[in-house]
Amino acid sequence: SVDCSFSRGVCDWKQDTDDDFDWNPADRDRGDGYYMAVPAFVGHKNDRGRLKLLLTDLKPKSSYCLIFSYRLAGEKVGKLRVFLANKKTAPVWEENKGKDEKWRTGKIELFQGAETTNSVTFESERGKGKTGEIGVDNVVLISGLCPED
Q1: Contact criterion met (CB below 8 Å) for 28 and 81
Q2: Of 40, 82, 87, 91, whose CB count within 10 A is highest?
Q3: In the chain, which stretches have pLDDT less than 50?
Q4: Residue 35, pLDDT score
């Protein structure tokens, strides 16, 4: 497994330069490191911010599971989407509201064919809300299929 979390991860994260705003580090409540967040008041409705995880050394013809924590806190805060580099047009994962402000776990299967996925992009789309935030943390890549809960 590869730890891509933000506080002590070994992965290569890049802010997209063609988007509307950047993701920023935010301190965790318990003080043990930080996560990446977009506050609800940043930008205008439908503006997007993209944070890209560069993946290297994935083996062709194998399966991986990307596991991450996410939170959509606040009324009409917006959308969180995940895109894979080799499937640019449609998101492979999307969430647009939280039932509450708790952290949840997202899982995405990465099936490597002859071409391997070389990046995963977390995209935040701004909603109408003025309070809350969209957050991502604890990003881990494991080989094999995603485990059942």
Answers
A1: no
A2: 40
A3: none
A4: 93
What ranges do the domains of the chain cover? 14-143
pTM, rounded to two decimals: 0.91
Distance CA 96, CA 56 (A): 29
- Which residues face 81 on adjacent strands? 94, 123
> Residue 88's pLDDT is what?
63
Give the angle 106-83-121 at the CA atoms, nearest 5°: 85
C-alpha separations of 31 from 27, 35, 71, 80 in Å: 6, 11, 17, 24
Residue 37 backbone phi and psi in degrees, to 5: -145, 155
pLDDT at residue number 42: 86
Residue 101's pLDDT is what? Answer: 84
DSSP secondary structure of 79-96: EEEEEETTB-SS-SEEE-
Report the CATH architecture of 14-143.
Answer: Sandwich (2.60)
